């Protein structure tokens, strides 16, 4: 596979499940809702990377030995949105948004997601991953990729999925080698420093989710809890030391986005009501009062005094 870009296009879940099995060669794949599933991927030398977006699903994979032992593959998952359970050898690993883990593809496993997920998947020969080359044979339990070396690896790999289409085979191989070196740097990173930031990492994951979904009018604490697999009480605890609650943070961030659009000359053709509605405000008068309470001016006065003078 040099490069793959595929999305399910079928009327029924059964047909879409069959399409997914065919394109991914998964022995069993069951898509449980009507959301489109998509995959984009490429080979960077020894490293295969895929960006995957799916609704509710269960994927079962039979252990595969790919030739000599040194060519058996390790699978690494970065969960960008949603959560899933990975079941392997009687052990269940819960992978939440903002976390990564690794396991051996030569051992049968299942991935079970009760809701929509978005993830980045990597596969590479086990002899090129220091964790397995040094004797590890158990799954690497979930760790955060929202700070430190892991955040650099995630961002770089995500960018490589798009950039690879314009790269030659030699350059893709060199990029794969660089990413594998990054992966081994992540494995050797100081675990004490990472665990100390675990609460901060979870907060950053929530804030990132909020920022990516601010235009969704249904975004609230309950929705975040459902999508990210947290209890609402856990979310409130994560922000307990902040000056504002999570709900208030969402409200203020929406007002900030409205303010940015009102300042943007490229948005001058849009009405104030249109901008407010886009960022989740259904009541124009309520929006105007909230905007004035935060910024000291009504939206109309704010726009007129800055955009047109």
TrEMBL record:
Q: Does the keyword Membrane apply?
A: no
Domain called HTH araC/xylS-type: residue spans? 204-305
Q: Which domain of life is it from?
A: Bacteria
Q: Which PROSITE patterns does this one have? A: HTH_ARAC_FAMILY_2
* Molecular-function GO term, any one: DNA-binding transcription factor activity
Q: Which Gene3D superfamilies match?
A: Homeodomain-like
Keywords attached to this Swiss-Prot or TrEMBL record, sorted alphabetically, are: DNA-binding, Transcription, Transcription regulation
Q: Per its record, how is this protein called by name? A: AraC family transcriptional regulator
Biological classification of the source: Bacteria, Pseudomonadati, Pseudomonadota, Alphaproteobacteria, Sphingomonadales
